[in-house]
Amino acid sequence: MPSDRARSLDATDPLRAYRGRFVPSEGVVAYLDGNSLGRPLTASVERLDRFAREEWGGRLIRGWDEGWLDLPLILGDALGEHVLGAAPGQVAVADSTSVLIYKLARAALDARPGRDEVIVDRGNFPSDRYLLEGIAAERGLTLRWLDPDPAGGVTPEAVADAVSERTALGLFSSVAYRSGHLADMRGITTVLHDAGALAMWDLCHSAGVVPTPLDAWGVDLAVGCGYKYLNGGPGAPAFLYVRRELQGELRQPVQGWMGSHAPFEMGQGYRPADGIRGFLTGTPPILAMQPLVDMVALIAEAGLDVIRAKSIALTEYAIELVDAELPDARLASPSDPAQRGGHVTIDHPRFAELLPRLWAAGVIPDFRRPDGLRLGCSPLSTSFAEVEAGVHAIREALAA
Ligand SMILES: *Cc1c(COP(=O)(O)O)cnc(C)c1O
Hints:
Layout: H1 4-11, E1 30-31, H2 42-59, H3 71-84, E2 91-94, H4 97-110, E3 117-121, H5 126-139, E4 142-146, H6 156-162, E5 167-173, H7 185-194, E6 198-202, H8 214-217, E7 221-224, E8 238-242, H9 286-302, H10 304-325, E9 330-331, E10 343-347, H11 351-360, E11 363-364, E12 366-368, E13 372-376, H12 384-399
Parallel strand pairs: 1-11, 3-4, 3-5, 5-6, 6-7
Antiparallel strand pairs: 2-8, 7-8, 9-10, 10-13, 12-13
Helix pairs in contact: 2-9, 3-9, 4-5, 6-7, 10-12, 11-12
The structure holds pyridoxal-5'-phosphate.
């Protein structure tokens, strides 16, 4: 049974009604991993069914001319408006985050000839680091590694110490996937710009839960994933943002027909399409974009600022419970909510061993090496009672 406190937090939650819009998950007591895989919306189940019957089955190949070809940009504009703070024509849905990092980082480096360094941090997600290692080898570049506090993240000061007239690009995550640290995106972007470098952000752990007004903050490039707080489903396509003023200057290297100026002329010699379409490569994953349509609409309806306020309340509550009930666990996330994204990480040497037992009991956080449990709170689907049930279950598993 939830405590009075959890019950009253849920009763006064302005977003409480949205929980009923998600597909029920039988046997799940506390889903604390919406930052890895968001839950499906009932509307998306219906949309997928309708799409398969009416559009795919009904319209067949004609569907491409009846809206599918434009969906990557239409959905991109909706993401720009409701999630990313980007004016139309700068966002597209495509590929995976990993592939988009390659496309945009390569394009950015080619646009800064004569500069041979890229700044990246050891706390960044593996793909980000691995892709830059590959590009550095391909282009003879040097990676300048930052080593942030594992319970924190990259700061403008650390970037300022590493940046120079040799820096072409800095690539960082808005919210660190392990610690949940929310970077000062605007401050770091300014430090990079002052040195003549480009700023690229990986928004996987912020998109849909933390506002990141990309246009207002002068961000050059961004990528992010569709299956975390955007609830697109396993392997949902990712999104990319390229600041309008850079679109003519940047040329991405994975040149496929869908990014060309006239795909259906099937002509000789690649010439990129104008604008954000030139950053596409192959046939867009229309089927896999369907759930994103619903989630972006839901975020627009609820309002990203209200979502962020509940996200802070959920993580504050999680930390309060951890402090009270798990005295041996160590908070491995920033304690200041202004420096924290939508999840909280706690470390304990026994968490690896406890995880299977928690999952079997329907309590689903995730584990990150070496000994961290991430408690992900997805404001539209997570209740305060769920957070409480999760922390109680962890306490009991530790006591057993
Ligand atoms: C989840 C995540 C990714 C995932 O990339 P994929 O190509 O979708 O596998 C990349 N970067 C960060 C920071 C992430 O959290």
